[in-house]
Structures are given as structure tokens and as C-alpha cells.
Amino acid sequence: MEFSVDLVVNAVIAGLLLGGFYAAVTAGISISFGMLDIVNIAHPAFIIVGSYIAYIASASLGIDPIIVSILMLPFFYALGALIYQIYYISFEKRGQESLRGLAFFFGLLFVTEVILILVFGVDYRSVDAIYIGPSLRLGPVEFPLRLLVPCAVALAMFAGLQLFLGRSFIGRAVMAVSQDPLALRLMAVDPTRIKRIAFGISIATASMAGAFLIVIQPVIPSVGRDYIGRIFAICVLGGLGSLPGTLIAAFLLGVIESLTSTLYGPSWAPAVSFGILLLTLAVRPSGLLGR
Amino acid sequence: MRTPFFALCATAVALALYLLFRFYGNDYLFFAGYTVLQYIVLASAWNILGGYCGYVNFGSAGFFAIGAYTGVFLYTVNQSIDDLFSEPVAAVMHVIFPLPLPVIILIGGIMAGLVGLGTGYLTLRLRGVFFAIATLALAVVLQTLIVNWSFVGGSRGAYVIPPNTVPIFGPYIQYLFCLMLALVVIALTLARLIERSRLGFGFATIRDDELAAEAAGVPTLRLKLIATTLSGALMGMAGVPFAYYIGYTEPGSVFDLSYAVNSIAMPMIGGTTSWLGPLIGAILLGTLQQVATVTISSVANLLIVGLLLIGFVIVAPNGIVGLVQNWLRMRIKS
Question: Which ipTM score applies to this complex?
Fold first, then answer.
């Protein structure tokens, strides 16, 4: 095939933009899996729910999908807190999170997908916004706005999360609960409450990630499954619980995937994340910036 | 009960079931029954790793598909021997092919077992949850490979046209049904054998406290790899006849998430600690789904399975077997 510098440069740019979006998608898992040790494999399902909410609001009320997702943050936060409460009472308290807790989230993933299929059918849904379609040109390099806008907002969200976790009291408590819940309890902080808040935040990020997703590509209920391998690959590659590591890994995966689909065809792209996941687990299980 | 005697009993029950279907049933019963039997094998296979060792495998669909596509591959090779090989080799191949279905089932089992071993070796040395995540992604990658592999049909799918009838068994579906019955007997006997052997006790120590088991000298990694390989091989064997059952194999139907969900939900609902649990769960859920597919819709029955799974893991963590055990204990006490 024709191998040109322009093609590669554009693929790398598209990959970087995609990476910003992947970072937003993975942020929630980085918190729940990396910091709280809750293997929430249902996370992609909540992202798709976010996509469909953005779709409904944008189709019926004409509101911008990303603004909708920001308005929906409290709702997703409450949902996350509720799910954590169920999870805590049914599994964590009884010490059964490894087998039954996983099965619980798997069931949640599956049920959410089936309900979405029952309500919306299996047609592709997409949204309208002014930044979908046009692109910014700098010489031979093209920045599609539908990738650029989600990437920019995602990075802002990511920076916000990092600031919150690093600077605020609750954020630091979240970091602490991932390291030593007992010590936290001795400091008179309830680890369950902190975990509930953190899980709520992790699900809240799904709202925004969902809106980004439907801006970038049309969505069907089963598309969430493609993201399971991706987000866990990024999370593990970045190092569990490390947000900066997640960001680097997201950019890396975005670029590699974009190059793969440009050079070998898009049908090979899904295999990239799994390859990276296996490679990371085999060579450096603690990830790039793991503790 | 000794294992050989158990195997004999199971075979007798299987034979009785076949004869009952043969003389009082119709072809539809065989078609529907085949699906339920397939789920018994999948659920029992999942339970060897999930129930006994406590390691979750989300990739049942992937292992199942390895089996199914082994069937497709060998069938396609047989169809195109003269195009693929030079004349002397083709003459030899014509003697070997077409392979009888039981042999293909064995090959499919070996392939799936090897994939299980490989995945397990890469991920089981770390925290258990990595294995679960890897199996989740495994199905996606295998699907990518199959979609890009045009020899077995790629994303278009491939036809496998079985003969209409088989000597002794009559219609081909009855032959498939009997093969699946045999696999069920094998899977149940194997599960029961493991449960009562040193191997099973080793598995149980891993499930209850892996660190303590390791400290006490249990070779945990080796045991986990044995469980992964056995479990994967059984799933692969369950998948091979599927290509012949459905006739037209395409990635979407073989990698269907419902296989993964069902093979987790059935043992969870039945009870994970004994061979009886997956059997009960598979018969109940499998039959329920057959009925629901006909009477309501195929999407609705998946919803039922998912909700049952969530409900059972929250309310009855030990499944139906656990509920019955509790009830018996209560009666003895009172």
C-alpha cells in the first residue's frame, strides 16, 4: 500500500485525539478498579447509558450532548453511590467480592445492554452538534473537530479529577483508602463512605465519556463491549491507581490503534488492546507508573 | 458411590432419555434438547474453574468458538483438499478425511485447552482478577482473528452441510444429540471425580484462601493451570458440534455474549460447590430460555437470565443447591 508521511502524521494526530477520549473513558475504571479494588466491568455499560441520554436530550430538546452530560453528573453520581451500597452490603461485607461481585457486575453489564436493546433497538444512533463535521487544517495536518472537542473537554475533566484527588480532603482520603483502609479508620474517617463517594465519581465520569463517545461515533447498545478490553488495557498499562499513568497509556493506545487501523485496516484494531494487555501483564504487571 | 458406577448410572440415564425422545418425541425435541445439553456441558466446564477454584472466566464464548471453528476449519479443509495440496499429499489426505465427528470434537477440545493453558499461564501468576479481565478481552480478540481469516468464512460466515442421516442413529440431529449426551456424561463424571479427589481438595484450598494454600505447600499455579485447561477443553468440545448443528456459522452467532452469561449464570443459580449445581441450573435456565424464546422473544429471555443472575448472587449466594441444603438443615434441627 501507499506509505506516505502525511498519512502517518494524520494517523498519529487522530490517535492522540482519540487517546484523550480514551483517557476519559478509563478515568472511571482507574478510580474504581485501580484505587478501590472494585472490578467494575459494567463501566462501559454506564458509558453507553450516558451516550443514549445525550442522544435523547439532543434529539428531542436540541441541547448540546456534552452540556447534557455535565448536567447529568449528579444523577450518575447518585447511581454510582447506590450501586456501591448494594455491592458493599451484598459482597464486600461478606468477603465475596472476587467471584460473586464479579458475576454481579457482569450481570449488570448484560442487563443494561439488553434493556437498551429492548428500548432503542439495534439501530445506530448519532447526535448533531456544530462541531461535528468540520475540521481544523494546519497545512497537511487535519484536526477533525468531532475528535478535538471531546479530547479537549476530556483533558479538562481529567485535570479536574487529578486536582480533586490530589488537593481536596476527600480526594486524599480516596487515595488513602486505596492504600490502607484500616489506617483511614483509625483517623476517624469511614472508609465505606469514602469508597461510596469515589465510586459515585467514577460512575459520574461515565456520563461525560458517554457523551464524547456518541459525538465521536454512532452508538449501538453492544458497542460498550469493545471498550472493556480497551479500558482495562489502558488501566493496567498505566499502572493501577495512577491517573497520570492512565493518561500516558491512553495516548499510547490511541496512537497504536490509529496506526494499526491506518496501516493494516480497521478490522484489526480491536486486537491491539488485548495484545497490549497481555504484554503488560507478562512483562511489567505494575504498569508504566505503577506503585 | 464409586466413579465408574456413577458413570454407568449417568450413561443409563442418558440412554433412557435418548430412547424416550426417540420413541415419544419429535425432531423439535431433539433440537431444543441439544441446546440444553450444550449448556450443561458449558456450565459444568465453567464450574471446574469458577466454582471449584473461584476464578471467573468471562470468555466462555471464546472457548466455545474455538471448538466451533475447529469444526468449520476441518470441514473446509476436507472440502478443498484437491485445491490445497499437491496430488500425492491429497491422496493421503483423502484417506484421513473426512474425519469422524468425535475425532474433530477431540481436536477442538485440545485446541481450546491449549488456549486456556496459554491465557492462564500469562495471567494466573498475578492477581486472579487479571485472569478474568484477560478472558473478557480474549473473546474480542479471537473474534477479530476469525473475522479477518477468510479461509473459515471471515465475517461472512461459513456453511457446514452435514449429511441428512447417519447409520444406526437415523436423522443427523439425533446423532448430534447423542454426541452431546456423551459429552454431558463425560463432563459430569469428570466434575464429580475432581470434586472428590486430591485435585478437588487442592482447588478448594485455592478458592478459600490462596495465600494460606501456597504457604502450606499446595502447588497453586499448577492446579490453576490444570483447571483452566480442563475447563477450556470441555468448552471447546461443546462448541465443535455447533457448526454441524447450526449449519451456517458466523462470528456474531458463535461469539454471542449469551454463552458467556449463561455459563456463568447457570452454575451461580444452581450452586457452584458441586457437580449437581451446574446441572440443575443448566436444565432450569436452558429449558426456561427455550420456552421464553418461543413464547416471548429471544431478547427478553436474555433479560430474564441477567436478572436471575444478579438476583441469585445477591440473595442466594450458594444457589439452589445451597437453598435446599439450608432447608434440610433447618428441618433436621427442628
Answer: 0.85
